[in-house]
Amino acid sequence: MEKMEVNIIELLEYLQDLVENSPKVPMSGKVMIDKREVVDVIDQIINYMPDQFKKAEWVMNERERILNEAKKEYDSVRKETMTMMRQNIENHDIVREAKGRAQEIIASAQREAKAIRLGSRDYSDEILTQLDQELEEHKIKLIKSLQESFEVVAKEIDTNLTGTCDVIKENIKELRSMKK
């Protein structure tokens, strides 16, 4: 999972560098970016994200599988107990003992099934909560990165326009001084 996080972060940082270091379009505050390169990086990010969703889906499928196995085991134990009870029905003491044993087995199987269900729910909740936190962190980092990039671009535009205005003012002064 760390490898994937590193790759996503590296791709986002690469995208940020691409925006910051791309050639600027004069007087517009915009940059020229290779569309194919940006789309390729975004596609890579999109391709990494589903792994987290696949992991959560696997957890849910594994939970379902465990629950099904517990139910099969419960059914098997129950069927076995019923067969045993039928075989010993003639002897009342054996029947009573079998019923007691069957109840113990059923109670044990139910406890195990419940423990497995609760454990898989907790694990699923933990994984989904972790995924939600990671997505939120990545969103915050991406928004912060984009805000910083926009601030840099805005400062550059302001500097460029201020410089251009200063040159125009100097030209006006020169023209006015030439009239005299």
From TrEMBL:
The keyword Coiled coil applies. Keywords: Coiled coil. The keyword Coiled coil applies. Residues 60-87 form a coiled coil. This is ATPase.
